[in-house]
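Ex. 9. Protein: Type I restriction modification DNA specificity domain-containing protein.
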Amino acid sequence: MVTHYSTNPHTIKAKIRDLGEAYSTMSMSKEQLTANGNPCIFYGELFTIYGCVVDEVKSRTHIEKGLSTLSRGRDLLFPASTTVDALSLIAPSALMEKDIILGGDMFAIKISQEYNPVYLSYYFNYIANKRLSKYAKGTTIIHLHYNEIANVVVELPSIEEQGKIVAAIQGYTTKLDIEEALLERILDLKQYLLRQMFI
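Predicted structure tokens for Type I restriction modification DNA specificity domain-containing protein:
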């Protein structure tokens, strides 16, 4: 993607604040996660469960939707604090689904139609992460505030190119998932055959 930027004359320069509307999420503790109830995303899960894209919401809570912060669709979810390092905060997850309860120490940006939220997630995770990590502050607990990065200028390809890049990445990801599943089955078969040899 970096090569693409250096050779494509049709790039877009925009401040992060121009990508969409930012909003804060409600406070939530891990103890409010339940086995059933309304679908939710707790900020700690951005580190442990979700990658660049939230394909399936895993957690539930009994918090009522009317009393909570709900995703707006086409959102980028950024963790806002960590005890690890500043780089781990520049790792947003794209959430395309509306009305998912969001809670904990994170902020979200509802991405406008001029940009692809999934592309932007990959962009922040793999291209802009080192540059943006310098805006995170703290020692024991490191914080990232939206206002600190809102005026940072990013350089992006056209919306059409963003879509093509996402399609290519998702194609490779699907192929990798298939190959990993096949490898797992082959290893299981190998273990079975080895056991049969010693019966």
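Check your answer against this statement. The mean pLDDT is 91.
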